Amino acid sequence: MKKLSFILAMVLGTGMVMAQKTTDLYQGGSGNYANITQTASISNLDINTINAVQAGSSNSLYTAQKGWDNNIDLKQTGSSNEAAMTQETGDLFLFTGKNTANVVQGGGSSNYAKLTQSEEAGNGSDGFLLPEYDRSKNYAKATQSGDANTYVLNQGSQVKIPNNESYLVQSGNGNYATIDQKGIKNFSDIKQYANNNNSILNQTGSDFLHTGTYDTSYSNQEGNNNGLTITQTGEVDNQLAESIQNGTGNETRINQVANTVQNVKSWQYNHDSIIIKQVDTITQL
Amino acid sequence: MCFFITKFELDNKHAFSISDLVGSSWFELMGLLHLKFDAMKTIHITGILSILLTASSIINCAAYEMQKRKGHAKYITAANQPARASPARASPEDTINISVLINGKANTVIVNGKILPTNPDTTNQNKITVDGEGNTITVIQTDQNSEVKITQKGNNNKISISQKNQQ
């Protein structure tokens, strides 16, 4: 409601135009290809939505969204599917919209999904003599089931303002995930079930007002020979890395670099290893 | 199949225009319907009576199908088709490329005989359905509010959708 009121105020106050762009796509079969682009001019507050289903194997989907709010809901069933998605909120002075993605790849193996969420490149200033910043709010939820799946997520292009949230579930063997979050608030929840899975998480924040950034990570790996690497880097940063590994031959590496609050909570069972490194940037000076 | 009209539009070598086929010349003269091709062989469909084009297309397609079943379809012959695989090796209906620029409301583009109902409202609702293999669809929408629904059944199909505001 608050957001709606704000958008309405923007429309009335600046003459900007709200528009909606929606694509509903279903492709059944194998070897299908889809390229979807949704863009808005800078004076428009577009709400972009893509609902896509690709049922079959060896399908590929490429999307690029640029607008006030960008939404994508993708479901790919089968094996060897590929999805590459880019979402950019509009560069509208001090304000921004939200990028939201929900990706499901299941029923097969060797699927690949890459998602990039940020604010579009601006013209060098956010108005009122303020420098240009990425002010995006990003939300991503991904579920991959099967073996040898890959998930790549990049949220935020600058470390100061973006608010990032990520949820990932991978079920199967040999899955791989790399998540990179840049912003003032970074949140990640990773769950991997089965064996030989690997996750790499990087959370980086920098608060120019020095009121504190937040890097939060929850990870749960159930199975054998899984690997987890978490790096949290900030200035005035509240960092929490909480991890669970249940199996044999698992390894966790946690690196935290900040000058305020650093917390690691880890539970490991059987023959697992954990390496934790915490660097207080104040004592380093 | 019912892709006939679209296929005909793509082939600029034909001596007569699509408006002759669908009987829409009068509407064109009245400024109510506009059809033209650009250098990329893209179909431009505008005007408030563009829905009539769709209806006419359906009727023509049905007529063509009937003639085809009787063995004397008169609009498309082997002689005036562009070079492509012979029907014995591959069905030409399964390997056509269509580029459609839709500018209007409640248009329906039909390929291979599938028809989807339209629900006109304040926003544009364009729908495309393709059955077959190796089809390519390109949709460009430049309306403030745009919506496209596409279903492709079969293998090796391609779709390219661009929704952007008119600059």
Structural notes for this entry:
The complex is a heterodimer of chains A (285) and B (167). With 285 residues, chain A is mainly beta. Chain A has helices at 2-14, 281-284, and strands spanning 17-28, 33-39, 44-55, 60-67, 69-77, 82-89, 98-106, 112-119, 125-127, 130-131, 137-145, 150-155, 163-171, 176-182, 185-193, 198-204, 213-222, 227-233, 237-246, 251-258, 261-269, 273-280. Chain A has one domain. Chain A is built from 2 helices and 22 strands. In chain A, the strands form 3 sheets. Chain A has a 10-stranded parallel sheet, with no helix packed on it. A 10-stranded parallel sheet of chain A has the order 2-4-6-8-12-14-16-18-20-22. A two-stranded antiparallel ribbon of chain A has the order 9-10. The termini of chain A are far apart. In chain B, strand 1 and strand 2 (43-46) form a beta hairpin. Chain B is of the alpha/beta class and 167 residues long. Mean pLDDT of chain B is 52; it is low at 1-34, 37-43, 67-96 and 113-122. The relative contact order of chain B is 0.16. In chain B, the strands form 2 sheets. In chain B, strands 1-2-3-6-8 form a 5-stranded mixed sheet. In chain B, strands 4-5-7 form a 3-stranded parallel sheet. The A-B interface holds A 17, 19-41, 44, 46, 48, 56 and B 123, 133, 141, 144-165, 167. Strand 1 (17-28) of chain A pairs parallel with strand 7 of chain B, so a sheet runs across the interface.
Structure, briefly:
The complex is a heterodimer of chains A (about 280) and B (about 170). Chain A is mostly beta strands. Chain A is built from two helices and 22 strands.
